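hey can u run this one w/ zinc ion bound, need the structure tokens asap thx
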Amino acid sequence: MKRLDSVYTPTVEERVDWHLEDGIDTLYACPDAWALRHRFIHRETSEVRRARCDRWSCLYCGPRKVDMWRQVIAEAEPTLHIVLTKAGKTMEEASRALTTWVQALRRGSKGRGRGHVGARPAFQIEYLGVSEEHQNFEENGFHWHLLVKGADYIPHEHLVACWKPATKGRASVVWVSAIHNTRAIGYATKYLTKDITRAKKGHKTVVRDGLVLCVGAGGGVDGE
Ligand SMILES: [Zn+2]
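ok here u go:
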């Protein structure tokens, strides 16, 4: 029999060091220090679960959160993909503009005067929004990508008519496209959630009106 002394066997310590370096540890468990020290035990079944930090930026928890959100979104079956430009320079400003816009759309309008100029019906929409920083942030700030359900069609002019005052006249450009099939949902969802795991400071999550997910600078992770 041939002896194998010439093949070097790394020590446990060395292997731990290597795996910490190549990040393989994040495949199996959340590497957060608090999470590693905690376990949850189900009172009735005695099932043991590792604790998780549940941060978007975590290599273990982040992708799992994205998957979870993708499923939630697909199940919601959104019908429209809407982009609202120039929402604001801060998350607060952008969120306020979005809320105002949604309220205006849900309220509808009788229009002005006897001729009811600018009249529009009320659209009882629900939405999921992801904020995105424009490449030229100085000029354009954040814009919103929205997946909307509750309406198969909203005339473009109504979307614009509500977005202009919501941004105090800053913005007038709105893009809208219909989501026809599950593949389109998959695409839109993938697009909307692609940046969430990207290592970036200042992720923000807000859940409001059912489903709102904001990702952008300023603020830590909250909501759930
Ligand atoms: Zn984690």
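The first helix runs from residue 12 to 22. anyway lmk if its weird
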